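Troubleshooting entry. The earlier prediction with iron/sulfur cluster gave an output that would not parse, so I re-checked the input for stray whitespace and re-submitted. Clean input:
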Amino acid sequence: MLNMFCYQCSQAMNGEGCTVSGVCGKGPTLSRLQDNLIYIIKGISAYYYHARELGYQDEEIAAYLSKALYSTLTNVNFDEEDFLKQALEAGMMNLKVMQLLKKAHIETYGEPTPTEVETGTKEGHAIIVTGHNLKALEELLKQVEGSDVYVYTHSEMLPAHGYPRLKKYKNLAGNLGGAWHDQRRLFDEIPAAILGTTNCVLIPKPSYKDRMFTTSIARLPGVKHIDGYDYSEVIEKAKSLPKLPEKPGKYKLVTGYSTSVVRSIANKIKQLVESGNINRFFVVGGCDVPTKKNEYYRRLVEMLPKDTIVITLACGKFRINDLQLGDIDGVPRLLDVGQCNDTIVAIEIALMLAELLNTTVDKLPLSIVLTWMEQKAVAIFWTLLALGLKGVYIGPVLPAWLNNKDLLEILVKNYDVKLISTPEEDLKQILKVEK
Ligand code: SF4
Ligand code: SF4
């Protein structure tokens, strides 16, 4: 395992890279803390980009991004403690940007309400939209109105169905597939035009490359990119392809549990907690990883006692969102609150519960079990730590830059961060804490 890897200046060892310690004096832990900060900044930037696309800006976030990035330049800041403080500051800035994006989404599309989403196909031509960009989705929906071209969401686009001013479009037909990594199989199988709108697009197979398009930030080699929001080429492509048959899905998915929806049943939840009918809340979700190890999350949820509520979000939800968990006296046991940026909704729900139950968020009967893939997850992880949440479970595999003893020790010592083991063992530990 490399101690560190940095090749950002011309002093890099042997002209290749500093891998043991920096020629400049930067040690491995400092190097990884700087990487940590850069990855949080990437996550914040993604959310800020989407907020700006909807016309929402914040001078403080913009100024913060340049300051934080500057601090990782060569020979600026060698203070490990400061980079730990900066990670927490970045976590709070990520909270702020998630709040901004939530405001942008709600003011533009209305606040989500629980919505059943079809997983089959309607007879007609098809466009699949993948990524996180609700603006691109809406612009496309406007342009197919009244035609027999149906629009299907994929992966992190599923929560779009919960927004009143998106679900009003009759051509929004349902959701196909699961997390981002099934796209090569799904797009190969379904003769649809495809629009990739953000990160989590994969280099396409030749079989569907000519019917794939990118827009906004996304770009793929050999794939037509559309600047702006005129999607007539995507629609023409869809019309040139065979129609999909009328075919119901095996199940329906439910999304759209916004803060307001949960607030409307908050007193009921309070009574159920006080009467012992609800014993614990779990947040299970995050960025899904295409590995067998991620079967952990489904098994964990399947094993949960019936007096637990599961809040889920991001594409990790596809591990569990077809499970029929039922309800506790009318309160659904599985609440899909949205995309990864909608972690803000899960946080608001946790803060609301803490207030209702007259406690603090770290003392709530709440366990957070995250799947971790890329850099938005790093930003969200530090938001949770900055809010004082301890004992967060992460897995299935740590990103390589975090795989350093010093960094892990800091996370375990300061925040009681836990790496997932088996669902049986982790659940035993979690429920033991409760007693
Ligand atoms: S900044 Fe330091 S650690 Fe990085 S390449 Fe230059 S000398 Fe090496
Ligand atoms: S949750 Fe993470 S891995 Fe999943 S689609 Fe969104 S950014 Fe990608």
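This one parsed fine. The pocket of iron/sulfur cluster (ligand 2) is lined by residues 155-156, 179-180, 199-200, 287-288, 314-315, 340, 373-374, 376 (CB under 6 Å).
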